[in-house]
Amino acid sequence: MSSPRTRFYRDKVNGKFMGVCAGIADYTGVDALWIRLGFLILAFSMGWPFFLYFALGILASKKPGYLYSDREEQKFWQGVRQSPARTAREVRASFRDIDRRLADVESFYVNSNPRLSAEIEKLR
User: Fold this and answer.
1) pTM reported for the whole predicted model
2) Longest distance between any two alpha carbons in the chain, whole Å
């Protein structure tokens, strides 16, 4: 079963009719205006996208209000949906950066405090 944050939902809050285009925009991270324009062009040139729109409008779940706590979290999950491998690399890089910064802080405090340095060496 997929995570609730990686599923497709209709976005009735930001939607115009059934929330399908707004849901696609939320899912992909593309602006809803471009999704709507693309849908209209496809729908009027081919016709079948109308059926797909209504099917998604009926079958897709409504987006829960508690899905994201803020805009930053929403952007993170859009990145996960677009490229999970890239997101994993970015998270690993963030953790490496945090680890490096913590090591710098530890080095600063240990080097400037010989007593603390001796205590740390006793613990090893």
Assistant:
1) 0.53
2) 77
